[in-house]
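To close the chapter, one final illustration. This time we ask the reader to focus less on the individual chains and more on the assembly as a whole: which components sit near each other, and how the overall shape emerges from the parts.
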Amino acid sequence: MSLTASMVKHQVQTPEIQLKDVEMRYPTDTGDVLALHQVSLDIGKGEFVSLLGPSGCGKTTLLRLMADLIQPTSGSIHVAGKTAKEARLAQKYGIVFQSPVLYDWRKVKQNVVLPLELVGVSKIERERKAIELLELVGLEKFADQYPWQLSGGMQQRAAIARALAMEPEILLMDEPFSALDEFTRERLNEELLSVWNNIQNTIVFVTHSIPESIFLSDRVFVLSPHPGRLSAVVEIPLPRPRTQEMRNSPAFFELIARIRDSFEGV
Amino acid sequence: MKGNHLFVRNRLLPAMVWVIAILVIWELTSWALLNIGHLPLAQSKLPYLHEVLATSIQYSGTLIKEGSATFGNAGIGFLLGALAGVVLAILMSISTWIEKLTFPYAVASQMIPVLGLAPIIYGIVRDEYISRILISGYITFFPVALNMLRGLRSVEPSALELMHSYAAKPWSIYWKLRLPAAIPGLFSGLKIAAPLAVTGAILVELMGAQHGIGVIMLRNLYYGPSHVYMFWSTVFIGALLGILSYWLISLIERIVSPWQPEFRSKGGSHS
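The assembled structure is written out below.
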């Protein structure tokens, strides 16, 4: 991918994910809580974006709306040219949660191909695909282990492999590395980028870590709380492939400062 | 192997010490009651264990025959009761309406004393085999249904959301998620119920059956002090049957669900 292409792609291409005037209210005993206020955004095909913000800013809510796990009070959501519900039914996205959510009773390889099993892919084909997926995340040696035999970081890698099983156009990730230690997290950031480089799909990554969002993304959507709203969109012009050294570059620190300044009312 | 060595030292050795200590104390107390205390009917209160054992061996044919009659019927009742419990738990987990309709009655049914229910059922069906099966099933049903229901409901919200993200059918969600997740609950219900099912079957036999361990238990109790060792043999056999049933369920659990936390070996984690 040439540098010019990567700089302009989200402007010229039809959006892979499009939100228009999305409003989300939760009814509570003391009246409605406004979780998201008038969010509109476009995410381009093949783009890596982060939804960044403190807790209570509605970033996870936003991701769950894209996944059609919840529905907005008002506004429209389009994913891969379909409504969010159609996209979910057509398996257009894979999702990774904050916890790995691996099923205890399944070996790692069986967990990874669970989505294939649900649509009736044959056992032979599943075996083949399991190895392919586990190789992608470097877990091929652990195919026959149970989830509890793996470390937290490895479990989350297995969860990523599972999210990629259906070869989805979109990968939705909800703070996937937030429960891990800093060292593991930085290593997995790098591994995620190399996986992304291989499959070139669209990734929406929820995080509360400013450096993580900068290191990974093409663009960072900055969300502010009370009510949850989009307060800035920051382009990350760092070249790819991203390296660990970039974390110490002046450009990186400048971006951190810019993003920090863009929060409202925190 | 190191694991075996540890098993012997940490598990087997303490167990052996306990068993031997209890045996010694029992025999000594028995001897004391008889020879120092000169209590009337001392052997009925606490018989010599070696005499009980000798009697058990002498009449092992009878004990095995009657014991297996009890155990067989209790087993059938247990299986039927467990099946009914599982089915009801699944129905209740599908529909809160069914739960509200049936649960209070399931609870109320457990308020009836088995001691009273057994002769009633025996009076109605007039068949000791069917009575034993019914009572064992009746006792098994409730703990299984209750624990199974709890297991079905134990599924984490995120595990369910994962299924929703795959647009999984309700049937798949049960088969691939809820039922496997309920296995630990199911087995705790089964483990509670299994020894109770045996006790229930013995209870029915006390109401006047022709076969079963309970029958010879009652007979030898009537015959008095001369049959005290045989009476104690039947008590021990009854207890053994209960332990055996628990042990069998535990073994099946280990085979069916080796992934459960309590079966995990230590130090298997990678970094």
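The first helix of chain B runs from residue 2 to 35. Chain B has two domains: 1-46, 49-261. With these observations in hand, you are ready for the problems at the end of the chapter.
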